[in-house]
Amino acid sequence: MSDTLNLQAVHNLLVDVAKQAGQMILAANPLVHGATSKSNSTDLVTETDQAVEQFIQTTLRTTYPDIGFYGEETHVPGTRLSEAPVFVCDPVDGTVNFVHGFPWVCTSLALVISRKPVVGIIYNPFQKTLYSAIKGHGSFLDLTTKLPFRSNPEPLTTLQQALVACEWGADRTGNNFTVKHRTFTSLARAVEDGGAMVHSIRSTGSAALNFALVACGVLDLYWEGAAYAWDVSAGWLILSETGGIVVDTNPGNWDVALDGRRYMAVRGAPSGQTELVDEFWRHVAGQLDYHA
Ligand code: LIP
Question: Where does Mg(2+) 2 bind (predicted)?
């Protein structure tokens, strides 16, 4: 079936569905106190997350009844992506932002075949920005602006000239939290004190939008453990189509699975990607313990 799929038609449907999902998101009026906690008080889900995912699944199934669905709000914990074609969906990525009205929220949709994304759509309804890609056909902002923004991106040279994205995520205890905050500190600390002295650290609160911003070339790297395939599948393709790469958060692993839950995204550049990854890994303060 995957050989006969018209990826442009899939792309066009995902764009339409993402924009309709965006209307549902804008029409909602979430309250901080109305959100439900999942693993803890920072890991939120709202009725909108669930309603949007239900809309997306129903709509996609109508046109593509034989393609599977893997969504944040309906997936069975512990299930992994199979080789079969599947739609991977985060209905509302940045749910904490959503309940606070902080406009870094998006719907992330991807078609994944043999565990590789082949169509990716990320739509932020608050900023009316659409990031999209079809495998082998480039990445675009709003369907017209080719990514990255700079047709001749600067080389990556040193973390001292890098703008990086990291996220606190939901885990705030134990080894994972310790590794995270020690890594953040080392990235920010002055070189003379053993740090990387990055230009700064940004946190949008959305893994998908972090990937999109790395693809645009306005972030140099994004480092996060604990995200899931639905957070990153669309962004992974959008980044890859710009020459960007995705490696492990943990030092030494260059080959990560789409549902591996540990990701470092690196922007496309004529040179310096591997050197910058090695430099970044020297500041990772241990091993993040996230697995598919
Ligand atoms: C969010 C991710 C973000 C992470 C948050 C949360 P959600 O996804 O996009 O990178 O730091 O903890 O997991 O839950 O808003 O779809």
Answer: 90, 93
